[in-house]
Design goal:
- Helices cover 83% and strands 0% of the residues.
- The chain contains three helices and no strands.
- The longest helix has 33 residues.
- The chain is elongated, with a radius of gyration of 19 Å.
Amino acid sequence: MICAAFVHLLLFLASLGLLWAENTWKLYLSEIIVTWVLGVVVIVFVVLLLGLIVLHSYLIHNKMTTFDYILSKKTQQ
């Protein structure tokens, strides 16, 4: 899933570049708009996935489970 999100992000960026470089953007305006909207959605998912990767790397480094992390956060409050 993580690799697929990065691949989709790269494909969206490549398609944006190709559509923009053709200088006939008026013919492809709807495709450009759809690509930008979907690209933003993909970027949001990539950022969320990177947050999960960082969190779980932190948990692995501290030899904690997600349950231990949640309990430690509850006791700190």
